């Protein structure tokens, strides 16, 4: 299961990097979509790292 979380964090890092770069290059409706993708990638990256380090974080 930890490999899934590490893959999630890697995909999130790639998506965030692409989104930041694309948000500055694309034209008007697409730059907003790229910025949303960058934020979603950052959230996926942080969540993947958190779950890889502490797998039972959300289990009460």
Could you give a short description of this structure?
This protein is an all-alpha fold. It has 2 helices and no strands.
State the main characteristics.
mainly alpha; 2 helices; single chain; 60 residues
Task: Write the topology of this structure.
Blueprint: H1 2-25, H2 28-53
Helix pairs in contact: 1-2
Task: Provide a descriptive summary of the structure in words.
This protein is mostly helical. It has one domain (2-53). 83% of the residues lie in helices and 0% in strands. The two termini are 19 Å apart. The mean pLDDT is 95.
Number of domains: 1
Q: State the separation between the terminal residues, measured CA to CA.
A: 19 Å
Uncertain spans, ≥5 residues at pLDDT below 50? none
Fraction of residues in helices?
Answer: over 70%
**Count of β-strands:** 0
């Amino acid at each position: 299961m930890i490999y899934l979380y590490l893959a999630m964090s890697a995909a999130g890092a790639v998506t965030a990097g692409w989104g930041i770069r694309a948000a500055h290059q694309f034209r008007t409706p697409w730059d907003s979509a790229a910025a949303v993708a960058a934020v979603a990638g950052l959230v996926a990256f942080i969540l993947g790292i958190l779950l890889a380090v502490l797998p039972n974080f959300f289990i009460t």
